[in-house]
Amino acid sequence: MRNLTKNDLAALLNQDIFHQISAAADGLGMPCYVVGGYVRDLFLDRPSNDIDVVVVGSGIQVANALKQALGKKAYLSVFKNFGTAQVKYRDMEVEFVGARKESYSHDSRKPHVEDGTLEDDQNRRDFTINALAVCLNASHFGELVDPFDGLYDFGGWPHPHTARPRHHFLRRPIAHVALRSFCGTTQFLHRRRNLRRPHAQCRAHQHHQWRAHRGRTP
Fold it and tell me: What is the pLDDT of residue 116?
């Protein structure tokens, strides 16, 4: 992992595609963030052309505005049922989604989805390191939003951030697969028992306990 300041992040994002996204979002008056794997990989110094963008508002509208700005060399796909859109431009793919809030009923694994804030969207993500977000709006360009101390987890195993980790893993079995895959392709440390029962490890690492584990005041 490398340490990156706001200025470092702004320099790494000083690319035409990010400034175009920034202009599109600012033109519509919508907060906009690059999130998830792309941000994680910036800190891991791993190249990536897959960009995930969360818009507090309509991701589809921002994607449309970006397509218009980029012209004929850009290709737009809209998935209205999911409220998402994808812009392909040169060797890059940019996925847009509106910030979402998810909730579950006791008898279903299918989430109830509604519009939400950036915080709501980060709350629904699997691990702390995948909840990192960097603002693309011109007024806060390069500013990191890390509500779950994801940066502290780069030195160990990737912690689920949710306050109800067992619930999270039972509702989303795919999180088990994501954990195994991610640990297998990065320098993150893991123990066999964690991979056998990740939800048990989760219970031992709820947010206030992680702070104590790291020697920090809860």
Answer: 86
